[in-house]
Amino acid sequence: MAILSGNVAYFAAAIVIGATVGLVGSAFHFGVDMLAQGWPTFLDTGMGLDGPALYVAAALVAAAMTLVSLWLVRRFAPEAAGSGVPEIEGAMEGLREVHWRRVLPVKFVGGLLALSSGMVLGREGPTIHIGASIAKAVSDLMGWTARDMRALLAAGGAAGLAAAFNAPLAAVLFVIEETRRQFPYSARTYIAVVLASVSSAIVTTSITGSVPFMLLVVPEVPMGMYPVFIVLGLLLGAVGVGFNRTLVWSLNTVRRIGLRWSFYIFPAVVGLIVGVLVFALPEATKGGEILAVTLAKEGRPLGILALIVVLRFTMTMASYSTGVTGGIFAPILALATTIGLCYGTAIDTVVALPDNGLQALAIAAMGGLFASTIGAPLVGVVLVMELTGSYGILVPVMLTTIFSNMIAQSLGGRPIYEILLDRTLALEAEATASPESPAKAPAPAVPTAPVA
User: Fold this and answer.
1) How far is it, in rounded angstroms, from Cα 122 to Cα 115?
2) CA-atom Rg of the chain in angstroms
3) Distance (Å, whole) CA 132 – CA 104
4) Full DSSP string of 38-70
5) By the 8 A CB rule, do 328 and 320 touch?
6) Could you tell me where the DSSP H helices lie in 322-356?
7) Torsion sign (Cα): 441, 443, 448, 450
8) Are 431 and 444 in contact (CB under 8 A)?
9) Per-residue model confidence (pLDDT) at position 163
10) How many helices (H) and strands (E) does the chain have?
11) Is there a contact between 120 and 331 (Cβ–Cβ < 8 Å)?
12) Which helix (H) or strand (E) holds 166?
C-alpha cells in the first residue's frame, strides 16, 4: 500500500511537471515569436527607418540583446549557456548539479533575448533545460532520492522537448535513446517520463493547436527512388561528423579569443552581423523552422540553396559559440532541409524527380542530419514524422536516417551532446587545476568558468 501511495505521488508529480513545462514553454515560445517580430517591425514601420539607418539600428539592437543575454549567463548562471542538454545528461549521471533557482530565470530571459535577436539558435534547448529545472524544483520540494530525482530530470527534459516541437512520442524516445547511459530504468521512472511528455503536449496543443509544428505532408514515393535516399544518408553522415567537429572547433576558438581579450567581443560582432542579416538576408537568421517549410515549397534555384546552406552553417557555428542561451535542434533541422533540397535539385537537373520527390528528400534529410549529429536515429525518424505529418514516407526517412548514422559511426563521430558534456567537464577540471583557479581563492557567489 505504501508503494502504491508512493507511486501515485510520483506519477502525480510527473503530470504536474509536464503541465507546468507545457505552460512555461508555450509562454517562452510566444514571447520569442512576439519579440522577434516586434523589434524589426518597430524599426521598419514604427520609426520609419530605411537604408543604412535601418541596418545600423538593427545591428545595434541585435548586438545589445545578444550582450545582455550573455551577461545574464556569465554573471548569474554559466551552466545556462548553450542548449542545456549536456548539463541535464551530466546531472543524470551525477556529474553536474541543476541549480534551478538561477537557471530558470536566466534560461527564460536570456533565451528570450538571444533567440529574438535573430541568432541561429533553437528554442528546444532552453525548454528542455527549463523543464528539467522545474523537475528538480519539484524533486527538492518532495525530498525524493537521487534515483527518483534523476528520472524526473529526464521527465522534465522530455516535457520540454514535447513543448518545443509538439512531439511527445519523440520526447519519450529521446530519453530512451539519447540518455540510455544515464536514465535509471524501471516501470516507475519510465511511466513518469511518458506522463510528463503527454501532459506537456496536452497543455501545449490546447494553447497552440494540434497541427504539426512543421507541416509538410508528402505522400508515398516510388520504391525505385529509395537508393537516392540511401545516398543522401551517406552524404549526411559525413556532414554530421563535420558539423560536430566544426562546432567544437568554433567553441574552442571563441574561448581563446575570450581568454585573451574579452568574452563579449565575438558575441558583439555576431550580434551586429545578425542585426543586418535580419533585414538583408533573413534566411540566414533565426532557428529556421518556418524557413525549412517555406524553402521546401518554393523550389528555389540550386545556387541560392547552396548559398543558404553555407550561410546557415556559418551562422549556426557563430551563434552557438557566443555562449548565449539557445539550442541546435532547430538549426540542424533547417540546415538539413536545405541540404536535402540542394541534393534533390542537383539530381533533378539530370534526372527528373517524381512529384513531391524534392520535398520528400528535404524531410528525409532532417532525420539524416539529426542522426549523424545527435546520434539518435530512432528519435530522428519519429521527430520528423511528428513535425511534418509525412507518415507516408516513413521507410525512405528510415533509410536516410540509419545510413547517415552508420556512416557517422564509421567515421568516428560521437553524439554532439556527449562531446559537449566531456568538453564542459574538461574545462571545469582545467579551471580547478589552474594556479589562478577560483578554487585557490575565496569562492565566488556563482561559478565563472566558461561552459559550452
Assistant:
1) 7
2) 21
3) 10
4) HHHHIIIIIS---HHHHHHHHHHHHHHHHHHHH
5) yes
6) 329-348
7) positive
8) no
9) 93
10) 17, 0
11) yes
12) none
Q: Which residues of the chain have pLDDT under 70?
A: 1-5, 434-452
Residues contacting 159, CB < 8 A, separation 6+: 17, 18, 21, 22, 25, 131, 135, 171, 196, 197, 199, 200
Q: Give, as one character, the DSSP assignment of residue 284.
A: G
- In tens, the pLDDT along 80-109 reads 999 999 999 999 988 999 999 999 999 999
Alpha-carbon distance 25 to 164, whole Å? 7
Q: Which of 316, 415, 425 is nearest to 79 (CA)?
A: 425
d(CA 239, CA 236): 5
pLDDT the model gives residue 344: 95
Listed in order, the ranges of the chain carrying CATH 1.10.3080.10 are 7-208, 223-417
Q: Which fold has domain 223-417?
A: Clc chloride channel (1.10.3080)
pTM comes to: 0.92
Q: H helices of 375-415, where?
A: 377-388, 394-410
At 409 the pLDDT is 96
Amino acid at 417: Y
Pick the CATH number of 7-208 from 3.30.1340.30, 1.10.3080.10, 1.20.272.10, 3.30.160.270: 1.10.3080.10
Among residues 124, 214, 178, 224, the alpha carbon closest in space to that of 405 is found at 178
Ordered DSSP codes for 84-100: SHHHHHHHHTTSS---H
Scored b (16 or more CB within 10 A) or e, 107-140 reads bbbbbbbbbbbbbbbbbbbbbbbbbbbbbbbbbe
* Contact predicate 64/71, CB 8 Å: no
CA dist., res. 191 & res. 223, Å (int): 38
Residue 446: the pLDDT is 37
Check residue 434 and give its pLDDT: 65
| Residues 341, 370, 19, 207, Cα dihedral to 10° | 0
